[in-house]
Design a protein that fits this description.
5-stranded antiparallel β-sheet; alpha+beta; Structural Genomics Hypothetical 15.5 Kd Protein In mrcA-pckA Intergenic Region, Chain A; 5 strands; elongated
């Protein structure tokens, strides 16, 4: 199956065009080999590495789907090998569109100071 079609069926991208754009941009690897053609054929046990949002995803294909079904069905098509990401410090909550108070600014300073250390 084509890699762009598989990425779309596995629900990593909303449209097949978006998945094709990622592949043709040279941002996808199959078994650690960089590819740039969206018609590249993938099969079971291939390992895909590609960016999604602000994360790098590492996926092992376990099955080839026959349709773009619900998310629960799409999750059976792959095994996620992506290492868990570190938790970022919580951001202070904003209330409406008001400016931060002095107390809010102190909380921000504490969070920034902790993240630098």
């Amino acid at each position: 199956m084509r890699i762009d079609k598989w990425l779309w069926q596995a629900r990593f991208f909303k449209t097949r065009g978006l998945s094709a754009k990622l592949v043709t941009g040279g941002h996808c690897r199959v078994n650690s080999n960089k590819i740039s053609k969206s018609a590249f054929a993938v099969g079971s046990d291939d390992v895909l590495t590609f960016p999604q949002g602000d994360r790098i995803r590492v996926i092992r294909i376990t099955a080839i789907g026959s349709r773009r079904g619900p998310a629960s069905e799409a999750q059976t098509l792959y095994e996620d090998l992506t290492p868990p990401e570190e938790e970022s410090p919580p951001k202070p909550e904003r209330v409406g569109n008001r400016r931060p108070t002095k107390k809010d600014r102190r909380k921000l300073d504490l969070i920034r100071r902790d993240s630098l250390e």
